[in-house]
Amino acid sequence: MSESDILLDIRSLELRYGAAVAVRDISLSVKRGQLVAVIGNNGAGKSSMVRGATGLVRPSGGQVLFKGEDTTRLSANKKVARGLVMVPEGRLLFPDQSVEDNLILGAYAHGGLKSERSKATLEKVLGLFPRLKERLPQQAGSMSGGEQQMLAIARGLMAEPELLIIDELSLGLAPKIVDQLMRVLADLNAAGLTILLVEQLASYALAIADHAYVIANGRVARHGPSAELARDPEVMEAFLGKKKKAAA
Ligand SMILES: Nc1ncnc2c1ncn2[C@@H]1O[C@H](COP(=O)(O)OP(=O)(O)OP(=O)(O)O)[C@@H](O)[C@H]1O
Ligand SMILES: [Mg+2]
After folding, report:
1. 3-state secondary structure 105-149
2. pLDDT for 55-69, tens place per residue?
């Protein structure tokens, strides 16, 4: 693969909250078409890495290249307009607003629903999520957790991502629902969408990802093909707090 196949290239990222260092040194890359997982325990620095990559928090060191361009100092809005889109941890929907309004907000970078382009995108997204189509007028906050996560993904798709970053897909959801949503992501990836999946439930993420990074203490502890990491007992025990059996 050539350099131009790399969509996201994070180089030696460092990020602080005041004096506290949350990301010490993270380098990570995502190639076009890949589904890459980022796994790691509570407080490892995964969400902070995402905030640094998407421009929500200004990194204190390192670089974030997107499609070859140095975007380290670009605002989150500008990055969204370039195709770097995130589904945030905890979903952050507008619970009192309708499903439709939440979706429209996702198209903000492309002129909301005023543009013909956004209307076409909405039709496409609703085709992928018929369940949301049935519920367009419903208040987002009145839906089940799984439906809300679906809406958060659909809202992200409304921004026409070239790379979709999803932070903690599984948060607060039952295993069966997590399975269903993981399948949705695998299907989106098979249809051509590049995805960076940040997930505490390592085994779910490793099952659908091509490549994975294990984050511990603000650094990359390991990375490699997902299947290899899933078989590596040290990864499962030392970094993810799982027993050997769980890795089998
Ligand atoms: N807004 C903030 N202000 C100060 N410290 C923060 C803030 N957000 C995170 N931290 C700290 O940064 C470190 C990394 O946290 P982060 O949320 O990035 O981890 P994480 O890997 O996403 O964890 P989780 O799996 O719980 O989502 C932690 O020590 C956390 O307490
Ligand atoms: Mg997090």
Report:
1. HHCHHHCHHHCHHHHHHHHHHHHHCHHHHCCCCCEHHHCCHHHHH
2. 999 999 999 999 999
